[in-house]
Amino acid sequence: MSTIVAGPVDVVGAQPFVERRASRGPSPGPQHERRQFTNTYHELSPEAREVALAIDAYKLKNRRRFISYEEVLGVMKTLGYSRNS
Question: Which residue ranges are recorded for the region named Disordered (predicted)?
């Protein structure tokens, strides 16, 4: 059941705010960290798969969900990539 937070309503006909983030108690299953990473690299070329796996490893090691372009470049340089001008 959701908790309804009552408060002043300035808009005519506005619906009350429903707090859905409220804790419902401990979950019954084992606690584990949720990951948003995909493991469907079978459709990638071997080189792209190597980059994707290296980036995922970097994210796990540094506890980062999203990384900057500078960090992507750093990961690629550790794999030996360089720009030929």
Answer: 16-35
